[in-house]
Amino acid sequence: MNCDHCGLSFTHEPHPYHTKNFCCIGCSTVYQLIENHNLKSYYSFHPKAGNIPPSQTADYSYLGDEAFHSKFVTFQDKTTEHAKLSIPNIHCSACIWILEQLNQFDNGIHWSRVNFSEKTIRVSYEFRKTSLQKICERLSALGYPPEMTLSSNKASASKTPRKLWMQIGVAGFAFGNIMFLSLATYFDSNEYWILRFRPFFEYLMFIMSIPVVFYSGKDFYISAWKGLKNKWLSLDVPIALGISVLFIKSCHAVFVAGELGYFDSLAGLVFFLLIGKYVQQRSYQSLSFDRDYTAYFPIGVTQVDSDGLHHRVPLEQIQKGDVLFLKPEELIPIDGKLISDEASIDYSFVTGEAKRIKKIAQQKVYAGGRICKQSCMITACTTIKKSELIQLWNQDTFQKKNSPFEKTWTHVLGRNFTAAILTITALTCVIWGFIEPSKIPEIAAAILIVACPCALALAGPFVLGNMLQYFGKHSFYIKNTATIERLGRASHLVFDKTGTLTNTQGATVEYIGNPLSEKEAEVLRSVFYQSHHPLSKSIEEFLSPCRLIVDFESETFIGLGIKASINQDQIKVGSEDFIKVPENSKTIGSVVYVEINGNYRGCFKILQAIRPQLVSMFKKLTPFSISLLSGDSSSEKNRFKKILPKHTTYVFKQTPFDKIKYIKGLQANHEQVVMIGDGLNDAGALKQSNVGIAVSEHKQVFTPASDAIIYAKKIHHLPEYLWAIQKSKSLVKICVIGSLSYNLVGIGIAVIGKLSPIIAAILMPLSSISVVVFASASTYLLHKKLQKMTLN
Q: Does the pLDDT of residue 34 top 60, yes or no?
């Protein structure tokens, strides 16, 4: 009978449970765990999903020691910890599914997320209800023991090349020796020694082909089988069929028909296929490595030197032990220890829960927390390469919801192409069955191999991956290749006004109201220094001759203003919705009102400078629909009408929630919306849009909700960046068309019986190499042209 969990057949006495029969106690136990925790939908998605790794026991008591415990914990607050563990036993989608349901087994676990390529799991749990030790013991009992080494958090992908090299070595060794042994069979001779020893050579070639098929080529079979189980025609299906056809035909020829086999072609085929696979993996790995470690992140930070002076420096320059000054609403960019007496931190970007955590001096703070209330200082405990910001920017919370077709159109094309190839192969075999049946195996193998659409799968990621790096060199930082594809479909550009189209430098600031004393001016400058808002920066610069106070309590209200307490004075600055402004004191324009100890004192009126070269920028953006959103009044509408295209839509007095509603309305009309904002008040709109581009003035504001970040001084190059994205899409199409043409020509030659399997095996990786070479050269030339276009 067959086991009701793993699906394997067995003949011994079963291990029954209710009406089910299992081959072993392990399968029975796993089934009971799944059933008892209401997870039986597992069998709906993955019927007879395969063997669960054997249960293992290990001693994890040493995790009670803080020295070991801290090596695996990436975040900690009063109730919650996050840990990252290496799980080498993860091998299929069923493993991922059950590991991401750990919260059903332990109510102390909030969630668990698997990174299949790294074979790691990130777990969030409440340490009062459970512990890292218990979680590791649970994982081990389920058959997924964590690899607890100091280097276990590194990607395990580095193990794959060694295995691949061994497979290439076995196939190459067999190919060379089989070719040598085949020399005796290549000559049409009736000499005695050839006739005498040829059977021996053929048996020896058969023996050498066995490890080639069942070791070197096994990954092609595994991948093809997993794809078919999930009703997906993967790219390895025709390859697996081609290898099988050649092996079976060769065995039949040698052991049944007494004819020459194709073991030399078989070994050569697998060898060259593995070479092609190596080229692909190296291409993907190089892209992944560059993407993860470029330190392109547009994050600057305020460093405090030994004299107490503040300097803006790139985050990648920060070393362990450096002192950083962080303002309210600024993200903690790096793990560190708090120097200030206390700080209020919002870890919602990390935990998903919008609550503030109070920290006191010398407590550890983690990257990703947002500073609330007053500013603070921390000592860096690590460097950016070990920070959690990369994972933060890519976590599920901030991913766009797109249809599978939008994400993987080249994969869909590859799947349909595979189905077409199988159909062509079947029809060709039928036709050759009437012409010369003996040539069917060789022709079928040649078609299946030369038509492998590997280059189709390589085209998009390689071209767009290269462009990710090049855009980064132009201070345009894009999250992933899917964002590039969405940018290529953009139809409506929505611009925020303040801080996006306007510049804090060169702004004209005027104070209107009762004169301020020197002490009041110092207090107000200190309050405005706490904020990243463009208007606050302009006012702080206007008040810069005054002394700066950095140690006080403040609270920022997004879209409204700031409340602070300094030297027993209660200060409020912000909009008229935040402060009680007398009717006769209300002013038109970009205005920030001031209230001290409950009394209205006056306002700062700011006329911000418009960024240079915007006129030429908008002339190049005429193909797009454009909207201008602003929280200010419409007093500056006439000013911007001289710059923006005639078809621009103007919407003023918009709260952050109004902006989200406006974008939803555009999307309801089937617009592909790109939102360009400053990343502070616009975080919700950036997330709602199809693509959110955050404009960063000094590279200090990191915005997880955005899909791309552009340096403010480069915003006028947005048309050139969008042009390069369109060209990138064209390059992908050229690669795909070239690959399809290459395959179709090869298929045509193979169909008429003029292409041997070994030549097909050589041509197949050459198509991938040609795509890599073309993509590298074309994207480099595109980058050079983009450089010339953006010199100013």
A: yes
How does DSSP classify residue 590?
E
**Closest alpha carbon to 625 in 491, 490, 489:** 491
At 13, phi and psi to the nearest 5?
A: -65, 130
Q: What is the DSSP string of 26-56?
A: HHHHHHHHHHHTT-TTHHHHSTT--PPPPP-
Which strands sit side by side in the sheet containing 356-360, from one edge to the other? 356-360, 342-346, 370-372
Do 563 and 571 contact (CB within 8 A), yes or no? yes
DSSP output for 503-532: EEEEEEEEEEESPPPHHHHHHHHHHHHT--
In the DSSP assignment, the letter for residue 427 is: H
Token pair in block for residue 354: 């919008």
Domain ranges of the chain: 1-52, 61-154, 157-293, 300-387, 471-500+623-724, 502-610
Per-residue pLDDT tens for 737-787?
Answer: 887 887 788 888 888 888 877 677 667 667 767 777 888 889 999 999 999
Kindly report which listed range (9-23, 45-59, 255-269, 729-743) carries the lowest average pLDDT score.
45-59
Name the strand (E) or helix (H) holding 304.
strand 300-304
Evaluate whether the domain defined by 61-154 bears CATH number 3.40.1160.10.
no
The residue among 185, 178, 253, 177 whose CA lies nearest residue 193 is 185
Tell me the fold of 502-610: Calcium-transporting ATPase, cytoplasmic domain N (3.40.1110)
The CATH number of the domain covering residues in 471-500+623-724: 3.40.50.1000
Q: What is the pLDDT of residues 157-215, one digit of tens each?
A: 444 567 888 988 999 999 888 888 777 666 555 666 666 777 788 888 899 999 999 99
What phi and psi, each to the nearest 5 degrees, are found at residue 359?
A: -120, 145
pLDDT 10s digits, 590-622 = 889 999 988 898 999 988 788 888 888 999 998
Give the CATH fold of the 300-387 domain: 2.70.150
Take residue 769 and report the two structure tokens written for it.
Answer: 């190499």
The torsion angles phi and psi of 496, rounded to 5 degrees, stand at -80, 155
Which residues in 279-297 are b (16+ Cβ under 10 Å) and which e? bbeebbeebeeebeeeebb
Are the beta carbons of 209 and 190 closer than 8 angstroms?
Answer: no
Give the pLDDT band of residue 406 (cuts 50, 70, 90).
Answer: very low
> What span, in angstroms and rounded, lies between the C-alpha atoms of 26 and 24?
5
Q: What is the Cα–Cα distance from 718 to 786, expressed in whole angstroms?
A: 11
Give which of 471, 74, 87 is closest to 291, Cα–Cα. Answer: 471
Q: Distance between CA 390 and CA 81 in Å, rounded?
A: 19
What sign results for the dihedral spanned by CA atoms 207, 208, 211, 212?
A: negative
User: How many whole angstroms separate alpha carbon 212 and alpha carbon 217?
Assistant: 6
Which tens digit of pLDDT belongs to each residue from 68-92?
777 788 887 778 888 888 887 775 5
E strands in 381-420? none
Which of 677, 455, 681, 444 lies closest to 557 in space, CA to CA?
681
Distance of alpha carbon 720 from alpha carbon 483, whole angstroms? 17
**Distance (Å, whole) CA 334 – CA 301:** 10
> What is the rounded CA–CA span in Å between residue 526 and residue 548?
5
**In one letter, which amino acid is 501?**
L
Closest CA to 220 of 261, 167, 177: 167
Q: How does DSSP assign 152-214, residue by residue?
A: TTS-GGGHHHHHHHHHHHHHHHHHHHHHHHHHHHHS----HHHHHHHHHHHHHHHHHHHHIII
SS3 495: strand
